[in-house]
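Record minuted for completeness.

…
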Amino acid sequence: MPLSTDFNVVTAIDVSDSITRHDEWLQYTGLSRGVMNADFLSLVSEGLMQRIGFMAFTWSSDGQLRIIVPWTVIASPQDAAKVAAQLRAAPRIDRSHYESNDQGPASRSDQAAAPGGGMTDIAQAVGAASRLAEDAPFQGRRAVINILSNGVDNAGFDPSLQRDQAIRRGATINGVVFGGRRDLPAYFEQNVIGGPGAFLMTVQDPADLPKALEKKFWRDLIAGNSLPSNNG
């Protein structure tokens, strides 16, 4: 019989070609701080099972997915510290095809020609996260998917189709958007987030991303705790 958890949380980290080296560092720093957040760990300890399932992966396009935190249980500060260490140690983006080591590709044509892709395929990210949530080795009361990104889907697919399928399967999809695109929050609200208790966090200055992500996971649990269980 699989281990039961209060929630299973899947976090999808944007590593497409629009993500700079600094953006990448901010995402990992924020997520590692988030799992160690005292409010988050307090909510975990107050749950019925007093533990959650957690995993994280990176995404861009053309099937480019990398699991950086395999499914694990967070039930204590020690568990959280191990996850935070995995996030900080995650492999960094291969920028060998970039003209600049810091700011990403110099042109759109460079981005399209990058080996293995590099577009922003949010539909792929949502679909992969949904499958990973369904295949979790833990029996969770609810699945929560977090999609991090600084851009809209530019790979030609409609992420709302994957979103709707994930919602029908019982998941809630939350978003964290950052950067200077003014259309991004509305795009995510219309095409990406959804499900019971879904919410969007908007971070205009990427430098504020770690602070926002430090609050992200406990907001997941607060929202989820106000909803009925999938099992019940």
